[in-house]
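note to self — DONT lose this again. spent like an hour looking for the file last time. sequence + predicted structure for the chain T wanted, 379 res
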Amino acid sequence: MTFHLHVLKLRGDTPGLTAELPFYRIGPPDAPEKVYLQAALHADEQPGTMLLHHLLPMLREADEQELLRARFTVIPMANPLGMANLVQHKHLGRTDLDTGVNYNRQWPDLFAMVRTQLSGRLGDDERFNVTLIRKTVAQWIDSQQPRTAAEQLRLILLKEAHDAEFVLDLHCDSDSLLHIFTSPELMPELEDLAEWMGAAAVLTAADSGGGSFDEVLPLLYRKLAQSNPGKPIPLASATATLEYRGLADSFDHFGEQDALRLFGFFAGRDLIAADPGPRPEPMGLTAPFEATDIVRAPAAGLLAYRVDLGQRVHKGQPVADLIALDGPEAFLARTPLVAGTDGLVLSRTLRKYVARGEAVAKIVGTAPLPQRRGYLLED
């Protein structure tokens, strides 16, 4: 049996403080492929942790029956630092309270870190190149001297993920349908993941502009391939952010259902020697993230939605009203907020009091929008 709990300690940034990062390694150590799963990098997003709570016993049973054909690293609570960000019974787990940096932004550009070490060393064999790249990344990680607990945590997560063939980062939105963010090169390869997950949409971007965790490895391989023409350098890690509905959706029935579906995906990929069952029918759309309109509030106000999640809307159609909270028509005026594209209402915000500029809905269309350039994220 290979099902083992590991606990790493992170030294805190103030006297007397430490944090623990518990995680599991499961499966044959010499298995040719590795799967990396993490949840709650945004520490206040718990649906992924609930899913992994239900998936771990399935993996343990498969391990006991010697059905695992891949190594699994499972980190159900990837951000113990953010778990401590409780302020008057409110969990502020999205950003580092000290720096204000989003925990899922500004991850390192590994290409910039290792390009010199790899210069002139890549060959004509794809497997050799992938092995060399992973070894070089591991050496860079090991050479770092983290200055803060947050930097230490990032290096730990990168080291666990960098050599995996599948890197799945489990998140959730505020209030949304199931969806996926991934690199355009990985579609249609990950269509089966979208189908097993039941994703309403797959949003693709080569670089969303924020330095997100799920883009670290694709950007590394993409930049290395571009700077070494003629050398076989694949996108060796299939990475994706899986958005499991909304903040309020941490329920057993969802977690069990989602875990069974993810187990089915792994079995369908022969990473687990089990019958995956019938593959679900396609139900979502795939579109560049540039085709998603993010509706924002032009002023502070109280939201009154006119549309439901999953509803199809047309460009110019009101999706919500913003009720004025000040000014000459305070508590009387309603300003319609309209869709900027034809598409699917993918997400809304749970909190109905919004400040100026806040995102209030995502509308997934199919045609890239001219205003969607550079930084594509809501946040």
